[in-house]
Amino acid sequence: MKIAVDAMGGDNAPAEIIKGAVQAVQKYSCEIILVGDAEKIRGELQTAGGENLPVTIRHADEVINMGEHPADAVRSKKNSSIVVATKMVKDGECDAVLSAGSTGAAVAAAQLILRRIHGIGRPAIATPIPTPRGTTLLLDSGANVDSKPEHLIQSGIMGSLYAEHVLKIKNPSVALLNIGEEETKGNEQAKETYQLLKNLRTINFVGNAEGRDISRGKFDVVICDGFVGNIVLKFGEGLALTIMNLLMEELTANGGAKLLGGQLITQTFRNLSKRLDVSENGGAPLLGVNGCCVISHGSSDAKAICSAIGVTKNYVDSKIFEHIKAAL
């Protein structure tokens, strides 16, 4: 399996991206092609100890920055790292593309180069969220705003298939994010989507989900508009970090941790941090395009990139693209 990795995308590029790639080729037995400034990549690759591993370099002398208009930048910067990496998937040179750069640019490149699967109006980013019961898949978490009901239906189908074939959840439950459980709740978009989902027999639609249900793990798949989904995702990340910091402050105040047993408290926090750590999942797949595209958080470190490559490998191995294409 060959994976094209945008080495120049992300807050910690290229050093952390390359470190993560080096870790991944040893852990997942795959081949990585790092795309970006060859000179910078070569130096970091040597530092990371990846010279004798199946990691190669493809030069691209442009980078799409966070502040640029995604579609315009993809069209004008033909030799940018994300565009070159995506074209490698289109040309069949690589099985997948991974980027921690501009989400908008990654989505635009996938739509313009790989194109959408026939029957898909808009692709969706599917983000796995850790819960006490396992994982809840949230989509769309940022690929599109102002989605129409038919787009949300497509997200429900794709999310259900991903949960079944990649997360290995049998007959996954699918819920629509809303302001209440009742069928009549929500705006016009939500009410119309509910009626369409209620009559759809190809997925296990179980009704509306409220915001608190996501973190509880009440449903396997929760669908929503990308504008709402992205806010939910970032709010959840910030809240989890704040609670962890507040707990640590309270436990360590006045030597509290010593009184309760320092080692026990430390290990408990390590276990909890691991369950809440976004780097444990690393990447979120963009579902609905003709090829495997995985998007990582902009602040991804080497651990997150390594995990994202694992997500990418599972995506390709599961042949989820073929399942979605057949279903639609």
Walk me through what this model shows.
- The chain has 328 residues and is α/β, with parallel strands linked by helices.
- The protein folds into 2 domains: 159 residues, Isopropylmalate Dehydrogenase; 163 residues, 3-Layer(aba) Sandwich (Isopropylmalate Dehydrogenase).
- The protein is built from 13 helices and 12 strands.
- The strands form 2 sheets. The chain has a 7-stranded mixed β-sheet, with helices on both faces. Strands 6-7-10-8-9 form a 5-stranded mixed β-sheet, with helices on both faces.
- Strand 8, helix 7 and strand 9 form a beta-alpha-beta unit.
- The longest helix is centred in the C-terminal third of the chain and has 27 residues.
- The protein is globular and about 60 Å long.
- It starts with a strand and ends with a helix.
- The model has no long low-confidence stretch (mean pLDDT 87).
Short description:
It is built from 13 helices and twelve strands. With 328 residues, the protein is an alpha/beta fold.
Content-based structural category: alpha/beta
**What is the CATH class name of the largest domain?**
Alpha Beta
**For the terminal residues, how far apart are their CA atoms?**
26 Å
Q: What's the architecture of the largest domain in CATH terms? A: 3-Layer(aba) Sandwich
Q: Largest sheet, order of strands side by side?
A: 3-2-1-4-12-11-5
- Beta strand count: 12
What fraction strand? 15-25%
CA-based shape? globular
Instruction: Characterize the largest beta sheet: strand count, sense, and whether it forms a barrel.
Output: 7 strands, mixed
Question: In percent, how helical is the residue content?
Answer: 40-55%
> What string, H for helix and E for strand, traces the elements in order?
EHEHEHHEHEEEHEHEHEHHHEEHH
Mean pLDDT: 87
The domain count comes to: 2
H/I helix tally: 13
Oligomer: single chain
CATH topology of the largest domain: Isopropylmalate Dehydrogenase
Q: Mind telling me the C-alpha Rg?
A: 20 Å
